[in-house]
Amino acid sequence: MYLLLNTYAGCGSASRKWELVKTAIFKKFKDAKVVDIHSNNIIDSIINESIQDSEKDFIIAGGDGTLNLFINDLINATNPHEIKKFKIGAIGIGSSNDFHKPNKEVNLVNRIPIKLNFNDSQLRDVGVIKYKSGTQILHKYFLLNASIGVTAEANDLFNKPDKILNFLKKHFTSIAIIYAAIKTIFSYKNFDVKIIFDSYETYSFPISNLSIIKNPNISGDLSYPCEANYKNGLYDIYLTHSMNKLDLINFLKSLSKKVFPNNEKTKYCKTSKIKVTAKNDFLVEFDGEIIKTNYAEFSILNRYLNICTN
Fold first, then answer.
1. Which residues, listed in sequence order, are joined to residue 286 by a DSSP beta bridge?
2. Residue 114 near residue 107 (C-beta atoms within 8 A)
3. Single pTM value for the model
């Protein structure tokens, strides 16, 4: 078993959180091979090593971004048959740790969320983003959710914090998330996009926010009202458009109550594919990571990755 450890997650707060949980982890997994993942290409080399031997259980200790980095490297290094042999568990020592939500008392060790029961795993859907970068067509993968618009820009700010946000990320994660959201709202401008669903239904909107959801927990205490379904091959799509700053503030308040507004500026549906294009580049957020493009096509690999459920 490999334990990939990122103590720099959560703006460095992961190191302190790891100290709270590591004794219990080593007691449970005495033979775990701990790998510091800060070296360049270390994840690729560990995956290649695991392919050659019979050890294909991985624990990812970090935040949502650390887990995302691992699954992207794993998918790129394996084929659809080979990847089914891997099992992935996680220890949430990052900022928001949305992968673990909703947190259950049975899955907490010193208030740190874990999912490490390798006898209780299931094949889960993986989100796929096909996007343009210059003249190239590239792919990224995600487990939880993706977004375009104000949520993506707030995540970009969260990843590149100012001094205030940097302090809040280390010590007061929930406040840091609200700070980033409100600061982004006051600078955000809607931009025109074309959205095409798998039914070829097409819309053009000045987009405020588009959330492409497998896990409804998007950051901190903010959440959409749907239930997570990791095996149905579908996304829950939450779109808001043409919103002014007051609308966006009210939208943020609604998500803090797990409510999605139902009005002429919102749309909800389920779909397996959605394509977004624009004249200019926009940000796409996926599990907290960011890319920039003017073309993004989202699809699903159904029941593709074996993930510990508890």
1. 146, 289
2. yes
3. 0.93
In the three-class reduction of DSSP (H, G, I as helix; E, B as strand; rest coil), residue 47 is classed as helix
DSSP-based three-state secondary structure for 289: strand
* CATH fold of the domain at 127-303: Tumour Suppressor Smad4 (2.60.200)
Q: pLDDT tens digits, residue range 132-185?
A: 998 999 999 999 999 999 999 999 999 888 999 989 888 888 899 999 999 999
Between CA 164 and CA 173 the distance in angstroms is 12
201-220 pLDDT per residue, tens: 899 999 999 999 999 999 88
Query: What is the maximal distance between C-alpha atoms in the chain?
Result: 57
Rounded-to-integer distance, Cα 64 and Cα 84, Å: 21
Residue 227 in contact with residue 261, Cβ under 8 Å?
no
What homologous superfamily is domain 2-119 in, according to CATH?
Probable inorganic polyphosphate/atp-NAD kinase; domain 1 (3.40.50.10330)
Q: Which of 243, 239, 242 is nearest to 267 (CA)?
A: 239
**DSSP strand pairing (87-92 vs 57-62):** parallel
What is the number of alpha carbons within 13 Å of residue 264 lying toward its C-beta?
1
* CA 126 to the chain's CA centroid: 11
The pairing of strands 2-5 and 57-62 is parallel
Distant-in-sequence, close-in-space partners of 151: CB < 8 Å, separation ≥ 6: 209, 211, 218, 219, 285
Residue appearing with tokens 């887990």: 67
Using alpha carbons only, how large is the chain's radius of gyration in Å? 19
- pLDDT computed for residue 40 by the predictor: 60
What integer pLDDT is reported at residue 301 of this predicted model?
97
Strand partners, 149: 209
Domain with CATH 2.60.200.40 in the chain: 127-303
Cβ atoms of residues 95 and 10 within 8 Å: yes
The 10s digit of each residue's pLDDT in 64-92 is 999 999 999 999 999 999 999 999 999 99
Q: Which residues contact 16 (CB under 8 A, 6 or more apart)?
A: none
Domain with CATH 3.40.50.10330 in the chain: 2-119
